[in-house]
Design a protein that fits this description.
- With 330 residues, the protein is mainly β.
- 4% of the residues lie in helices and 46% in strands.
- The protein has helices at 272-275, 315-324; strands spanning 27-28, 44-53, 56-64, 70-77, 84-89, 92-93, 106-114, 117-125, 129-136, 142-144, 153-158, 167-173, 184-189, 196-202, 213-216, 221-223, 226-237, 240-250, 258-261, 283-291, 296-303, 307-314.
- The strands form five sheets. The protein has a five-stranded mixed sheet with strand order 6-10-9-8-7, with no helix packed on it.
- The longest helix has 10 residues, at 315-324.
- It is globular and about 55 Å long.
């Protein structure tokens, strides 16, 4: 069997074969959504991150509270489908053990393990939205680090290992509201505190589904073909923004260089739970689980800013599709 994903097997990851008659390169779980509004006292839970941890799965979930602010909650699952999410928000502390200043809001987290430490990145308040960073070894003690940037920035996504000795973070400079623009950038840090060497990775294009803004999605997946980056692309319709999923391959040693970007979306709002919700027409990818042995990828995504859903793909099929439909403007 061809091995394309560089990593470990994950035999207990969620998986469902493509349904009969389905030709989609990415297909939906037929029991979506996997996290509904019934799981946490009726709150909307969406745009959340999951990761394998010991013999189970752990997640950092965005929940929108009744005071209007979103915040971060810890969740656990044996199968990454049936989740138990803690009612209390995650409490952070400073590196000296003192309580960190409470965050006004936290949303759209990502979660990654690098050299035995688990890092959370999220949209944090710092006189406007910016990228917060925290670390944990055991998902009991959470140490908040310095924010990566001054306002305004969103969609902070770390690579799962250092590249040329540095931590690498995808991000998207933005504004204080519902940003009507945005490109994907890359920044580097020797110590997860000071960020620089900023580079443009990908800009919006004339393709309708991603002509307003872009944002990095799940943690990039290391493959023999390059870093597989799944992202969201946004267009403006008569009724508002539409969030679709795209995919690209980035250079392994210089991920600011795009090898090939797919001109087509790989998933767009079509299912009822994606088209109708608190914010209509949103498929917002935040996490993947993947098995190197079988080449399987499960994509966790927020649906209509209301629930968490799940989709699947095979890595070789997805990479072949990207190559067969290149964005010629890159």
């Amino acid at each position: 069997m061809k091995t394309t994903i560089i990593g470990k097997p994950l035999p207990n990851m969620p998986w469902q074969e493509r349904g009969a008659g389905c030709t989609d390169i990415v297909w939906r779980y037929d029991k979506n959504p996997v996290v509904g509004t019934d799981i946490l006292n009726g709150l909307r839970v969406f745009n959340s991150a999951v990761i394998p941890y010991k013999d189970e799965f752990i997640g950092v979930f965005r929940a929108d509270h009744r005071n209007g602010y979103p915040n971060l909650h810890l969740g656990r699952s044996k199968d990454a489908i049936n989740w138990k999410i803690e009612e209390k928000i995650i409490k952070f502390q400073n590196e000296d053990g003192s309580p960190a200043k409470p965050i006004l809001y936290g949303y759209d987290p990502r979660l990654v393990e690098i050299e035995g430490t688990y890092y959370i990145t999220w949209c944090n308040f710092f006189n406007g939205p910016t990228i917060g960073i925290a670390k944990t070894k055991d998902f009991k003690t959470f140490i908040q680090l310095e924010n990566a940037y001054v306002p305004f920035n969103r969609n902070g996504v770390l690579f799962p290992r250092k590249i040329n000795g540095n931590f690498v973070l995808l991000n998207r400079p933005s504004d204080n509201g519902h940003t009507p623009f945005g490109d994907i950038y890359l920044s580097q840090s020797p110590n997860m505190t000071y960020w620089g060497k900023h580079r443009l990775v990908m800009s919006t294009t004339h393709y309708w589904w991603k002509n307003v803004k872009l944002g990095a999605g799940p943690i990039p997946i290391e493959t023999t073909e390059g870093w597989l980056m799944i992202y969201h692309g946004v267009c403006q319709s008569c009724s508002g923004f539409i969030y679709s999923m795209g995919a690209a391959l980035l250079d392994i040693d210089d991920p600011s260089r795009v090898i090939v970007d797919c001109e087509n979306y790989i998933l767009t709002p079509e299912a009822p739970y994606e088209r109708t919700g608190f914010v209509d027409n949103v498929t917002f990818p935040c996490a993947t689980l993947h098995c190197a042995k079988k080449g399987r990828i499960a994509i966790f995504y927020g649906s209509a800013d209301t629930t968490c859903s799940l989709a699947f793909t095979q890595v070789d099929e997805l990479i072949d599709y990207i190559k067969a439909h290149p964005n010629k403007s890159v």
